[in-house]
Amino acid sequence: MKYNIEDTIHEDSLPINTIAMANRLIEILKENETNCALSLKKEGKEQGLIQYLKCLWIINQQVYGQLETIDMNEEWVRLNKLIA
Q1: Does residue 50 register a pLDDT over 70?
Q2: Rounded distance between C-alpha atoms, residue 70 and residue 25, angstroms
Q3: What's the total number of domains in the chain?
Q4: Could you tell me which residues come within 8 angstroms of residue 48 by beta carbon, excluding any fewer than 6 positions away?
Q5: What is the domain range of residue 55?
Q6: I need a labelling partner for 23 at 20 to 30 A (CA). Which of 2, 5, 31, 71 fits?
């Protein structure tokens, strides 16, 4: 089995290179012949979805921390205030 950067989610230390993680997200989409993460929810794409979600988790832990709970509505309000 090929070892990918998202597989580090199971290790004691996690990657800090966000560009590598973002590039891997693009790779996963291309491997699954789509440009939309929602397409990974289709039958036969389950492995791609798992890989994609692992990458997102690693990016989120880089931004928010490993044990943070992200309230998407609260985050949306916060981001809108920043641009106002």
Answers
A1: yes
A2: 20
A3: 1
A4: 28, 29, 31, 32, 40
A5: 5-83
A6: 71
